[in-house]
What we know:
2 domains, 59% helix, alpha+beta, 6 strands, six-stranded antiparallel beta sheet
Amino acid sequence: xxxxxxxLNILQKYILREWFWTFLAATAVLxxxxxxxxxGELLNDVAGGRIPPGLLGTLLLLKMPDALNxxxxxxxxxxxxxxxxxxxxDQEMAVMRSSGFSWQMMLxxxxxxxxxxxxxxxxxxxxxxxxxxxxxHAKLESAFRTAAEWGLxxxxxxxxxxxxxxxxxxxxxxxxxxxxxIFIQHRDGDREQIWIADRGYYWFDSVSGDRYLTLENGQxxxxxxxxxDFGVVRFSRNDLRLPEPAEKDxxxxxxxxxxxxxxxxxxxxxxxxxxxxxxxxxxxxxxGLLAVPLAHSAPKEGRSARVxxxxxxxxxxxxxxxxxxxxxxxxxxxxxxxxxxxxxxTLGIAVFWMRRQGNRVGSA
Length: 364
């Protein structure tokens, strides 16, 4: 090995370290941001009565694998742009070019970083995300049967569904499921019902996905806010279906299915889900290569223009992927075309752009 070859290998390691530490920093920041966003969404669901407060921490943890699939491609994109941008701004890249460092030599440290992280993201998307989604759905089903996990505290009024459902329980038995002396106020438009029962318990209909509160030995008082048509009905048992969100999201059931079950599926929605699981790993490679020409800047060029261009490129790429997923699921786009054309088109643009900038990066 000649002295020149040794120097070039040192330069490649130097760039790899620059990208790696920038990737870790960007990942840490994005995890904090995504953690806050996910926590806010879950707290909103808790306030709306869609998930039990007792499962907040568990569901937050189970949503992290899916969040990592979004974080890692973006963090890689930021790392390559930011790392190379610093080398350009500090004139270090000019020195490397004078030593014969071509853009092809940059590909080796780049793929040393992209391939392991891309493989990890592939495993997360194909295996870990479905397991987490299935576990999240299963825990919700179990929690709907257990008053303790639902977060009921005896002797307190629980306001759910933006005030349309008020629940009060005097006590919970040791099994965590049976309730005593229950009071419910339920509003539906201009109608209002008051439910009173001696006993009750939660249960979940796995077929319809609805959740119920079974009440025993009680009565219902119903009336309207504008009319004086009140009525009282006594019952020995009555099932109260707890209200769900206006639009019920069935996607967690598809997201929770193992990847092997989706491989040979003819369903458009399942094919869209399968391609979506693979896309983050491909995005790692595509965005990493696209970031190389995007990071190139002249010695006196400001970095704001490159940052804005990078944000625009990532936004277009990510939004077209989201739209393609919907098009495939709706059947308006063939699954054979699917999301592959987006990755191939962006990859082609990245390679063409890098080759065109080759003379600037040091190729002969």
